[in-house]
Amino acid sequence: MFHFNRLLRRGSLASLALLTLAIAGIGGTITPAAHAEETVVVVDETGGDKVTGDVGTFAWKTAMASSYGPGLWGNTTACGQTLTRDTVGVAHRTMACGTRLKFKGRNGVIVTARVIDRGPYVSGRTFDLTQKLVQNMGYADSYAFGVREVTWDYNN
Are residues 101 and 43 located together in one domain of the fold? Predict the structure, then answer.
């Protein structure tokens, strides 16, 4: 049986479209393959407890990201906090400070972080991730991460 409430919690546009079709009676049957889910490990933005969760695959997006941190520790971010070794955050050019995002890391780890800074200012990149966020995603450090495509979504 298909669970509309699970989709509505995610708040995706696809959920709204499916719900509209179902109410209109023209949506037909949704097969399990169309609603694939996976079990993942979730790490909160403080790097605290790991919990297993059910995460949908409808709204995930990809973008190019790099990392930053060691040379900038001690500086104040555009959102007003001091960047330290333990800061978990992300820089984006236009998203509001404090916007919660989730990123898929290695081996299915999902890490949440807040927008804390502006950037990156390199063409073709969407995010700059702090070194602690990169480590929570399962990479050794910012040098091992380099510049790569990341999978991300808003944390609803």
Answer: yes
pLDDT tens per residue, range 2-52: 444 444 444 554 554 444 444 444 444 333 433 334 434 445 544 443 333
Choose among 15, 57, 61: nearest CA to 33: 57
For residues 14 and 53, state if they share a domain: no
Q: Same domain for 64 and 81?
A: yes
Confidence (pTM)? 0.63
* CA-wise closest residue to 114 among 140, 139, 133, 136: 133
Both 106 and 80 in one domain: the answer is: yes
Residues 79-119: pLDDT tens digits? 999 999 999 999 999 999 999 999 999 888 999 999 999 99
| Burial bucket for residue 91 (CB in 10 Å: 0-12, 13-18, 19+) | buried
